[in-house]
Each structure stands twice: as structure tokens, then as C-alpha cells.
């Protein structure tokens, strides 16, 4: 009878998948264009809040959440969606 050693591939696979997902999430924000877009539209006290999943269309490359004050001084939150060759859109 031979001794067979079972090799578990589940743990390394999960680890690699977790790292990949973290890199994707970190790479999908564009703070420079988010700040520029919001400032150009009159927002103040802008704070970016990171990646916002499922807020933008399939044509958008970047999805950056934010909180800010609008032109009337009211606190708002939303997402700035940016894509290659299309500019940025503010979504509330």
C-alpha cells in the first residue's frame, strides 16, 4: 500500500483571489479627476471615500465615492464615474 499525501489547493487559491480583488478595488478609483470634476461643478469640503462598487455603467473605468457640500451648502454623497474617452459623470 502506498502513502498518498493529499495536497490542498483551496487555501492558496483563496489567498491569491483575495489579493487580486484587493488590487482591482484599489486600482478602480481616480481621485484627481474626481476632485477636479466636483470642484468644477461648485462642490466644496470634498472627501473621497474610495471605490464604490456597482454605481457606474459598464463603460466606466473608475468609480470613486465622495462626500461634499453642494452649491447651497448642503452635505451630499455620491460617486464620480470616469471612463477612457468619455470624461466623468457625478452620480448621487
What's the arrangement of secondary structure elements?
Elements: H1 10-26, H2 31-40, E1 44-51, E2 62-69, E3 75-83, E4 87-91
Antiparallel strand pairs: 1-2, 2-3, 3-4
Q: Tell how many strands the DSSP assignment holds.
A: 4
Mean pLDDT: 85
Enumerate how many helices there are, as a single number: 2
Proportion of residues in helical segments: 25-40%
Task: Describe it.
With 92 residues, the chain is of the alpha+beta class. It has a domain at 29-91. 29% of the residues lie in helices and 33% in strands. It is built from two helices and four strands; from the N terminus they run H-H-E-E-E-E. It has helices at residues 10-26, 31-40; strands at residues 44-51, 62-69, 75-83, 87-91. Strands 1-2-3-4 form a four-stranded antiparallel sheet, with helices on one face. Strand 2 and strand 3 (75-83) form a beta hairpin. The longest helix has 17 residues, at 10-26. The chain starts with 9 loop residues before the first helix and ends with a strand.
Amino acid at each position: 500500500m502506498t502513502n498518498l499525501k493529499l495536497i490542498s489547493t483551496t487555501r492558496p487559491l483563496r489567498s491569491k483571489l483575495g489579493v487580486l480583488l484587493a488590487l482591482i478595488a484599489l486600482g478602480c478609483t481616480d481621485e484627481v479627476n474626481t476632485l477636479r470634476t466636483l470642484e468644477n461643478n461648485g462642490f466644496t469640503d470634498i472627501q473621497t471615500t474610495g471605490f464604490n462598487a456597482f454605481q457606474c455603467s459598464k463603460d466606466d473605468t473608475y468609480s470613486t465615492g465622495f462626500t461634499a457640500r453642494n452649491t447651497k451648502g448642503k452635505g451630499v454623497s455620491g460617486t464620480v464615474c470616469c471612463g477612457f474617452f468619455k470624461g466623468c459623470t457625478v452620480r448621487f
